[in-house]
Amino acid sequence: MIFITLMILNTYFFLMINLVQRILLAKTNVFRPFYLTQAVLPGIRSRRSGTIASISRIAVNTPTYSLYTASKFSLEGFSEVLSKEISEFGISTLIIEPGAFRTNFLYAIKASEKGIPEAYRGTTADQVFNRFKAVAGKQIGDPVKAAERMRGTGRATEGQDLRLVLGKDVHARITAKIEQQQRDMEAAREVTFSTDL
């Protein structure tokens, strides 16, 4: 199994990162996976087997993470379409969506060196940052078990699934997002079906 996994080890308050950090974010989460996939694809295509895996994140839809979320949506969209393009060669694509695992990840979260701008104090951005600091070291997920599942241990549907959701917390968030999308579609049903010739 070939894993193409890219994670940001130090994350930032994305409302406040500078231009260089934004470019690094795009390179890490968007362009490097594209180039790496392009580089390994001929070899695994000739073997007609393998898995190209990418890491998404629980932070999707978290306020203050709009740039990070955009980069992850890009990677997920790429992976979804890639799965349709390479499945006939016996290659599967896997989007790994981990929840909160007890690693050092949250300890690395920091605001910009200037701190939170006055305009954002007491806002959702401030609350999210403080919540992350409060849960660091208290996450319920076991990183060893997550790594085992990523490598395939305990996955009964290997090669048949596009997404591997790891953790009760992220399962609940994804379920809530799907339910919200269904409510949005239902609320707009009349308008949606009113556009035919």
TrEMBL record:
<keyword id="KW-0472">Membrane</keyword>
<keyword id="KW-0560">Oxidoreductase</keyword>
<keyword id="KW-0812">Transmembrane</keyword>
<dbReference type="InterPro" id="IPR002347">
    <property type="entry name" value="SDR_fam"/>
</dbReference>
<dbReference type="InterPro" id="IPR051911">
    <property type="entry name" value="SDR_oxidoreductase"/>
</dbReference>
<dbReference type="InterPro" id="IPR020904">
    <property type="entry name" value="Sc_DH/Rdtase_CS"/>
</dbReference>
<keyword id="KW-0521">NADP</keyword>
<keyword id="KW-1133">Transmembrane helix</keyword>
<protein>
    <submittedName>
        <fullName>Uncharacterized protein</fullName>
    </submittedName>
</protein>
<dbReference type="Pfam" id="PF00106">
    <property type="entry name" value="adh_short"/>
</dbReference>
<dbReference type="GO" id="GO:0016491">
    <property type="term" value="F:oxidoreductase activity"/>
</dbReference>
<feature type="transmembrane region" description="Helical">
    <location>
        <begin position="6"/>
        <end position="25"/>
    </location>
</feature>
<dbReference type="InterPro" id="IPR036291">
    <property type="entry name" value="NAD(P)-bd_dom_sf"/>
</dbReference>
<comment type="similarity">
    <text>Belongs to the short-chain dehydrogenases/reductases (SDR) family.</text>
</comment>
